[in-house]
Amino acid sequence: MSLQQFISEALSPWMKKDGPDSDIVLSSRIRLARNLEEYKFPLLASMEESYAVIKHVGDALTQEEFDLIGSLEVFQIDEMKTNEKRVLVEKHLISPHLADHSKHGAVLLDHDESVSIMVNEEDHLRIQCLLPGFQLEKGLNKANEIDDWVEKHLTYAFDEKRGYLTSCPTNVGTGLRASVMMHLPALAMTHQLNRILPAINQLGLVVRGIYGEGSEALGNLFQISNQLTLGKSEQDIVEDLQGVVLQLIQQERSARELLLDESRLQLEDRVHRSFGILAHSRMIESKEATQRLSNVRLGIDLGLIKGLSGNILNELMILTQPGFLQQYAGEVLTPDQRDERRATLIRERLRLEEGMDE
């Protein structure tokens, strides 16, 4: 597959599938940080050494197919255009750090984009598995199988006492970062998040925005993940996160029921007003669009809006980001041009969805 095929569609194939509790947990991610024994870590490596890592990893992992993921394609970051990198970030296939700060990095992708292996980010390898809904255990099992397959071809930097050696001390040990992307509009509307999020941080977990560290929590979407790996087993890390996520799911469902019972008219007005704006506006900024889409997604999940699937909103959350808008336009757009195209795209996509339902 070419890079254009990977960036041409907003929804990755894995995102089109349903998962457990997918009305609240949009996706689960398992990421493993690994380094190669015989090479300097990326932060200290020269350009020649970085390219040598890419070649070594690419040669080792693309010579044969692995039953679990099929074949992998290698794409070098410095051969991509700026907007191509932005699209891959918007699809969560690479990190903002790899796109913006790694001059000599690469990414290996499988056909349905549920697996990506970043090369020369903060570590030599960042093995990432993505699954729809709340599936951390399944994601961990899949990541471990891929990790075992990779280790048959490459030698990791590993210490018997400390575990896997990484650039950042918070990843030493298992090198595992487990995370979920959650849609929590009712908790936001009922002003409970101000109390809940600090409590989550005190449990050793981190709450971030949609694109991870340093990003804003747009559209009531929050990424919740473990913070430390040293001294904990992979199973303990996942179980701790699962326990918190289960509580959040319960609290979000309770908040939704509360809104329906005590503020139904106001909720219906908010949901349908947002749908009306999305269906008829001629210009709309990214921040407003994601908030309106969040409201409409809540309306769909609660049965207040009929004839639209949740996936159409997942698609529009990605499709209306700056990278995708410019990818479809085939040119660099000014902010006003992006706002106009965003509004047009949303109107047309909603109209198409309604037409398909008739």
Question: What secondary-structure arrangement, pairings included, does this model have?
Answer:
Blueprint: H1 3-7, E1 25-34, H2 47-61, E2 73-76, H3 82-90, H4 96-101, E3 106-109, E4 115-119, E5 125-132, H5 136-153, E6 158-159, E7 163-164, E8 176-183, H6 185-189, H7 193-202, E9 205-208, E10 221-226, H8 234-262, H9 264-280, H10 286-301, H11 310-319, H12 322-329, H13 335-357
Antiparallel strand pairs: 1-5, 1-8, 2-3, 3-4, 4-5, 6-7, 8-10, 9-10
Provide structural commentary.
With 358 residues, the chain is an alpha+beta fold. Helix content is 48%, strand content 15%. It has 13 helices and ten strands. It has helices spanning 3-7, 47-61, 82-90, 96-101, 136-153, 185-189, 193-202, 234-262, 264-280, 286-301, 310-319, 322-329, 335-357, and strands at residues 25-34, 73-76, 106-109, 115-119, 125-132, 158-159, 163-164, 176-183, 205-208, 221-226. The strands form two sheets. The chain has an eight-stranded antiparallel β-sheet, with helices on one face. The protein has a two-stranded antiparallel sheet with strand order 6-7. Helix 3 packs across helix 12 (322-329) and helix 10 runs antiparallel to helix 11 (310-319). The longest helix has 29 residues, at 234-262. The mean pLDDT is 90.
